[in-house]
Design goal:
mainly alpha; rod-shaped
Length: 79
């Protein structure tokens, strides 16, 4: 009986160690998930801002292309 009690105690201690490791892993996973969620939020914010930047860039490109198109016409008129 004494051998069974010692074995039982040893198994309990081993289970506690495994439980402790499991909890540590869960906490680490939680931190990683929090980090991922934060990065997703930042990405979503930057994606919402990106269309505004794209529209500004496209209007600048339109202005540049219009000025390039207009410039040769003026040159031909001057000649």
């Amino acid at each position: 009986m004494e051998g069974l009690a010692e074995e039982n105690q040893s198994l309990k201690e081993e289970m506690r160690k495994h439980d402790f490791l499991f909890v540590e892993i869960l906490e680490e996973m939680r931190h990683k998930l929090d980090w991922i969620e934060e990065n997703q939020k930042q990405l979503a914010v930057s994606m919402r801002e990106k269309p505004e930047l794209d529209s500004q860039e496209s209007s600048l490109q339109k202005l540049e292309s219009e000025s390039k198109t207009i410039a040769p016409k003026k040159d031909t008129l001057v000649l």
